[in-house]
Design brief:
This protein is α+β, with helices and mostly antiparallel strands and 366 residues long. The protein is built from eleven helices and ten strands.
């Protein structure tokens, strides 16, 4: 497939993706909404209704254009500007301001985890990729916690992060997993760079970029090598009685959970099992397992710190200006090969790791 480079204009239709990006995919919530347990079903239905309203609001933001946020005159470059709000179990955003940049921890662990997670994400992009916040220009990082009641999701709405507390039966507090915070903020990075469309393979790439950088946020914070990392997305989110370890596995897509209520993880690891579906925006949360697995293979083959060589290659492609908004897996794969050669030299270990990884998952690079 030959695609033109993504355009960058001031038109709000092209500046921001119209996607409402949440970490729990709708196909999981659809299943939970049909649970025989009325409490589980009710929480899932409320989450689906809330998500539908937020999805509509996100589209309106796209039409009108998100307001520009200039750097304050007294705001130093390379320093986060975090503000945490408490929705107090309502849905009006942003809610009550409860912690600002530089303030001491509060008595609310959820507030403090959100604050720390925003900081961990900021630090990865600053330290590893010389990026000043998610837009590259010091964008303030706002987050709202305790959103709605029994809300089973976390999302980036194009302007801020929002976290639910979970229903306690299937999902726990969504600030528990720092990679989920990184995942959602990485949607903002994609919004301000490649702006990948949110349907089919481009949408799966969009989700995969968030899984990749969300995982790197956790690994950087914990100073884990590729061999030490668990390569799970959302470990710690599932309630104790759920048969599963996380929302997704980059190491072994399709194995994150297998539960009577939640169902079985549907992610494929290779193109042989690509899922053709009209739900979930054409399977964006499902087929992201394929590029996720490719990144895992690159990172583990190279070894060492995943945010360095493997992460740098992915970041170069995301921000390089050649990734089209409608790029498919093969388009992205070819660009990663080119990026590996450009940064590390043709025929080197990095080029070899990238080409072999995509070959393993069945995506052509030539």
């Amino acid at each position: 497939m030959t695609t033109a480079p993504a355009t960058r204009t001031s038109d709000p239709f092209t500046r921001c993706s119209p996607a409402f990006c949440s970490v729990v995919p709708p196909h999981l919530l659809d299943r939970l909404s049909r649970s025989a347990d009325p409490l589980i079903a009710a929480a899932a239905r409320r989450t689906l209704v809330t998500d539908a309203a937020n999805r509509t609001a996100r589209r309106l933001t796209t039409v009108t254009g998100a307001a520009a946020v200039p750097r304050a005159a007294d705001a130093p470059a390379g320093k986060p500007r975090r503000t945490i709000y408490d929705a107090e179990h309502k849905t009006a955003l942003p809610g009550k301001k409860v912690r600002a940049e530089g303030q001491q921890p509060t008595g609310d662990a959820t507030v403090n985890r959100a604050y720390a997670g925003l900081g961990a994400t900021f630090e990865l992009f600053r330290d590893a990729y010389e990026r000043d916040s998610i837009n590259g220009s010091g964008l303030p990082l706002d987050a709202t916690v305790h959103y709605s009641r029994d809300y089973n999701n976390a999302f980036w709405n194009g302007e801020q992060m929002v976290f639910g507390d979970g229903d306690g039966r299937i999902f726990l507090d969504f600030t528990l997993a720092v990679d989920v915070i990184g995942h959602e903020l990485a949607h903002g990075v994609t919004q301000y760079t490649a702006n990948l469309a949110y349907f089919g393979q481009p949408g799966a790439l969009n989700e995969s970029m968030s899984d990749v950088f969300g995982s790197l946020v956790k690994q950087y914070a914990l100073k884990q090598t590729a061999e030490q990392a668990d390569w799970l997305i959302g470990a710690g989110l599932l309630a104790p009685d759920v048969e599963g370890v996380a929302l997704r596995s980059m190491k072994a897509p399709g194995t994150a959970y297998d539960d009577d209520v939640l169902g079985k993880d549907p992610q494929p690891a290779t193109m042989d099992d690509y899922v053709h579906t009209g739900s979930d925006n054409g399977g964006v949360h499902i087929n992201s397992g394929i590029p996720n697995h490719a990144f895992y293979l690159v990172a583990t083959r190279l070894g060492g710190n995943p945010w360095e060589r493997a992460g740098r290659i992915w970041y170069d492609v995301l921000t390089g200006g050649e990734l089209a908004v409608d790029a498919e897996f093969a388009d992205f794969a070819k660009l990663t090969v080119a990026a590996a050669s450009a940064r590390y030299g043709a025929g080197g270990a990095e080029h070899d790791a990238v080409t072999k990884a995509w070959s393993t998952v069945g995506v052509p690079t030539e």
